[in-house]
């Protein structure tokens, strides 16, 4: 996927909305609808059907069970279709034994530019999990993913609009690849744009660089992200913090009442979609605990 230049309007023509008809999926639908309207995109509500087959049963009963499951899926998709009224949309069902292969085919077949999904965000002892479907998509997708986590404050959003967009960057190419999406989302929603960099104090000491100088340089780099022609409408605010990236990003998002967090992520050997600030746990922690949707863009 070719990334747009900073300052250019990104093209989102086809949106894949993943649903299993659960409450988290329902929470994500208003955002899929809102983005589709803003970008005049076609929306594809998409359900992957993995048949529940019981071991101790006859072939006839198995077939009857599958048919009943399919009927329930069609009924649920009709309900989603009704909510998509007024938008160009096409509901899709794919049957498989796993989640990712059908999603990957849909991305290719329908020229998907953005994936939208909700997650329950359960936690584990060693790491934060996004849920089985979201985890798989987050780990594999090279298409930007808009994830609506369990802490999202639905009541704080009117028609799922983004009034304040927070873009967190460490200035690596991976995080900078997400900058056009942050600017475009801010422009489409006439939103304020908050630019954030979290300083790694240990690396600053290793470079024998004073903290004040590091902050000054970071503020300059943040301001340079926004083209001069865009500064009048996006009202950018540049912030520099020190500490743990995930914690600081979440703190700033809460303090500034951000409606969207935009992150660039990269692959690292042995890791699931490591965030540019730290390892995979950083991006996962942000998605799980953010009180607003999170847009992740993989370079």
What are its keywords?
single chain; 299 residues; alpha/beta; Rossmann fold; ten-stranded mixed β-sheet; 19% strand
Provide a descriptive summary of the structure in words:
By secondary structure, the protein is an alpha/beta fold. The protein has a single domain, classed as 3-Layer(aba) Sandwich (Rossmann fold). Helices cover 40% and strands 19% of the residues. The chain is built from eleven helices and ten strands. The chain has a ten-stranded mixed sheet, sandwiched between helices. Helix 10 packs parallel to helix 11. The longest helix has 25 residues.
How are the secondary structure elements laid out?
Blueprint: E1 14-18, H1 23-39, E2 42-49, H2 59-83, E3 92-95, H3 100-109, E4 114-118, H4 132-140, E5 145-148, E6 164-168, H5 173-176, H6 179-188, E7 192-199, H7 201-206, H8 211-225, H9 231-234, E8 237-242, H10 245-255, E9 260-265, H11 280-289, E10 294-298
Parallel strand pairs: 1-2, 1-4, 2-3, 4-5, 6-7, 6-9, 7-8, 9-10
Antiparallel strand pairs: 5-10
Helix pairs in contact: 10-11
